[in-house]
UniProtKB/TrEMBL annotation:
Keyword RNA-binding: no
Protein's UniProt name: Oxidoreductase domain protein
Domain of life the protein comes from: Bacteria
Molecular function via GO: nucleotide binding
Amino acid sequence: MNRRDFLQSASAAALASTTIARAATPAVKPVRLGVIGAGSRGQEDLRQFLRVPGVSVEAICDIYPPRYEQVNRIAGKRVPATANHHELLARTDLDAILIASPVSLHAEHVIATAQTGRAIYGEKALGFTVEDNHNILAEVTRHKVLFQIGHEYRYAAWAQEAIRRVHAGDIGTPTHIYAYWHRNGDWRRAVPQPDPEGKLEHLINWRLYRETSGGLGTELGSHHIDMANWVFDEQPQSVIGTNSICRYHDGRTVGDNVQAVFSYSQGRRLVFSSITDNAKQGCELWIYGTEGSVQITIEDATFYYEKKRSNAPSADKADSKTVVERGVVTGASYSTAGEMPYRGPGEKVVTPTSEDPTLAAVRSFIGAVRGEHEIFADVHCGFRAAIACAVAHDAVFEENKMAIPGMRG
Ligand SMILES: NC(=O)c1ccc[n+]([C@@H]2O[C@H](COP(=O)([O-])OP(=O)(O)OC[C@H]3O[C@@H](n4cnc5c(N)ncnc54)[C@H](O)[C@@H]3O)[C@@H](O)[C@H]2O)c1
């Protein structure tokens, strides 16, 4: 489709939707979606969006043409397509824009969209660099557009319930969060045709190169940083970390493993680890509190409680290994008792629904577009996680403690 056809189809679609609107009063207000960046995540988001009543996709923008047919298959119709996001944004028949381009392009795409005043569902991370994040926040705020960040675990029923209980004091004072995202795979995508100059390699495997990717820390860790920010109700103040290439010496310039410690106020910490050569730990986040722990995964949440014990030994509790002399209890200076973790099934969080988090997130976004409620994972939430990712991206290479700036103004 050429440029004129692309824009003409916009006017025709606008006319058609007006006619339909006049002919019948729809049960729900239609929301017409445009997509910028229709790759793997864009397509998954789109699949979920199309499950929400009243949502349709009316245009896509992607610089890789094979995406057009892939989207047509998902939509079940021919969706007007362009390689230029300004052309997509010039259409008059779009109510909301899904942005799922690579992170290094988020600032360009989000800011251009915010300037048109449309609602935005923006994939994480909010922005790539520190400056990108400040600029996106400023423009989204200046244009007063609705913006939801793709931190879909904020919409997982079990995560919401677990964190509600943590905030209510269920595990005492939460002090540490340990988050793992361990996989066994090279994180590489196949390049489907000869590519002598490596251009397609960089387009398809942008995640593996430092100039376009924050590596595992941003791509996976951003979700965990967001959850830690949610639990501690603030963003981290500094980060120290490291990364290396341990297994995949294939030309990538981001680590195939990363470890980072994020510091919050009052000495609280998030410890994040991601490796790509062993999947035993999987994806899980542990919140440790003074009276218990909760494990949150991408499927469920489970509480465990610390053993209740008294620090003051009494003569009554003396066993064969302790000696009571003149009222003083003595015993071995080290005992293995209590060193091993308490095991058992724990107490699984039960929720009325366990809807797919992405479906729950996009459904909620559409509700916000229809004016039914506010956005939970808003641009501030996106900023607090992404600014930490942007700084951690440098910190894991420099292996220095680096301060994470807060919002300006
Ligand atoms: N929320 C989540 O759980 C989740 C999961 C996966 C990915 N993501 C995020 O989604 C985003 C996309 O990731 P992905 O895995 O889909 O990547 P991808 O490479 O599969 O898709 C990105 C698409 O953007 C297109 N693109 C590149 N440059 C463009 C440009 N200038 N204009 C328009 N389109 C352009 C590419 O051709 C590609 O089709 C990233 O920010 C990633 O972090 C989020």
